[in-house]
Design brief:
This protein is of the alpha/beta class and about 375 residues long. It is built from 15 helices and 13 strands.
């Protein structure tokens, strides 16, 4: 099949999932076309089955905000015609499903029918809580997609609660390439580069937005390091980073906290980790937690959104209420203070992650593609 993938090309979860999906599809022989404004960060190399088409937005003084949706719609039309793309798989309802719908209508005038698969990742749904003016457009985009998927049961439930949806929504969980993390664990895991043999390593990875509750990460670690000799790896970048660095300095733990910035080698960082911290306000799924688990790293997280579908409480780590940094720190110490207990949690995390393997999830998307193609024909 010839599949066009539209996504945000950033370090966020939706962009990572879309990129990894495209790479996996290409490895199975499908022709994949990424259509977005930058090359996706996880797309390290192009091949005969992977193509990238950049969307350019012209600067016009008339527009206060440049019309990306118009540029994207036009680019989709051009690429479908030029490359014979058979399916558009768009990640995020707004603006991608909206732009794909417009492209579909333009192509229809030329006698071309192209199905749209829309995957909801979370922000496109939860955004409505603070920006209700988007509701009509989001609702329209979902209802006019040929197939709709959500990355968790929690997100599906939120979507049906917030919108008047006439489409069936299939839950297709996010996935990880388990072998990649196992390989990093064997080949690239040199803990001595970052910590002494007796130190534990805690890790947080995110885009440092307020929803990730970065101050809670620092507070949890501050409590943990009072009982356990440990270091904290802060991976990522965003609006909350400066405040976090200041807080770390004020608490006097600068020597124990490393800010590593954005990285495309998350697997090599996670293999060093003993515990992963994810105290988010909400997560539609929690891909970062799943990546940690695939790297044999138990997770301390909140119980919001889809996190309970990924992090099994008392098995792969622990769940706590949002903001309960004391309990999260206590649970972290409980895992770390016993080597035997830590190893048990690590094994459980890895075993649980297997159900979200690429080999399990990829066929679900392929079946959806086949069904929408038949529906269009």
């Amino acid at each position: 099949m010839k599949i066009g993938i539209v996504c945000y090309p950033t370090f966020g979860g939706s962009g990572v999932v879309a990129t990894e999906l495209g790479i996996a599809l290409a490895n199975k022989g499908h022709e994949v076309h990424f259509i977005t404004y930058n090359q996706p960060v996880r797309l390290n190399a192009l091949s005969k089955n992977i193509h990238f088409h950049e969307v350019f937005v012209e600067e016009y003084p008339l527009f206060h905000f440049q019309p990306y949706e118009l540029a994207l719609s036009s680019k989709l039309v051009a690429m479908v015609k030029l490359h014979g793309i058979e399916i558009l798989h768009v990640h995020y309802a707004i603006p991608h499903a909206y732009a794909a719908y417009m492209a579909k209508q333009m192509l229809r005038e030329d006698g071309i029918e192209i199905p749209i698969v829309t995957t909801l990742h979370g922000t496109d749904i939860t955004l409505v809580g603070s920006h209700p003016n988007y509701k009509t457009a989001v609702e329209f985009s979902i209802n006019n997609s040929d197939e709709v998927t959500a990355v968790s049961h929690s997100l599906k439930k939120d979507t049906l609660r917030l919108f008047n949806i006439r489409k069936d929504i299939k839950v297709v969980h996010n996935f990880i390439e388990v072998d990649k993390y196992a390989k990093a664990h064997k080949e690239d895991c040199v803990r001595s580069n970052l910590a002494s043999p007796d130190q534990k390593i805690l890790t947080h990875i995110s885009n440092f937005r307020p929803v990730k509750r970065i101050p809670d990460v620092v507070d949890i670690f501050y409590r943990v390091q009072q009982k356990i000799d440990a270091k904290l790896l802060m991976v990522g970048d965003g609006p909350e980073r400066d405040a976090a660095e200041k807080k770390v300095m004020e608490l006097g733990i600068s020597e124990q906290v490393l800010f590593l910035g954005n990285s495309s080698e998350v697997d090599k960082i996670l293999c060093l980790s003993d515990l992963f911290l994810l105290p988010s306000e909400t997560e539609s799924f929690g891909l970062a937690a799943l990546e940690a688990m695939a790297a044999n790293t138990p997770v301390i997280s909140t119980n919001s959104g889809g996190l309970a579908e990924v992090n099994s409480d008392g098995v792969t780590g622990f769940l706590s209420n949002v903001g309960d940094v004391n309990e999260m720190a206590e649970k972290a110490i409980y895992i770390l203070e016993s080597e035997q207990r830590l190893e048990e949690f690590k094994k459980n995390a890895f075993d649980f992650a297997q159900q979200f393997s690429l080999e399990t999830i990829l066929p679900q998307y392929e079946e959806i593609y086949r069904s929408v193609k038949v529906g269009i024909c």
